[in-house]
Amino acid sequence: MADKSLATATEPARTDPESKGPGRTVVTTFLDDLRKLREEAGGPSFRTMTRTAHYSHTALSGVLSGGRLPSRELTLAFVKACGGDQGMWRDRWQRVYEQVNGPSPAAAVPRWSPRRLTLVAFATGVALAAVSTVVVLGIRGRIRIG
Predict the structure, then answer these.
(1) Given a cut of 50, is residue 12 above it in pLDDT?
(2) Which DSSP string do the residues of 69-94 spell out, in sequence order?
């Protein structure tokens, strides 16, 4: 498993006007809800979560202890490992990100995860190898050497 670093939204969080207490932020509320999601999933260890999240246990534990908004990819991996609704959490992460940082110009453009890019590159390589093999075998069948 590749060890991925804990990526975070780096801007300081603004106070949420609808917070449940003085000084609460939208990020704190978001992180508390991620903590509750993990508890509702039976409190799996971070090492157990690495099997489905494909992030290191350090990165996963940093989600709850960092005090910052984790990257969207890391958040969704955490949610997946807890069996949560990734679509709902993706939308929620975007709302929190925009409250903290303002609208994101790249928000409408989906980013491919490193894992997906690796799979696409691998599949492309396999396809090219197959085509090359067919071409070489086709040429050998038509031209007799010797």
Answers:
(1) no
(2) PBPHHHHHHHHHHTT--HHHHHHHHH
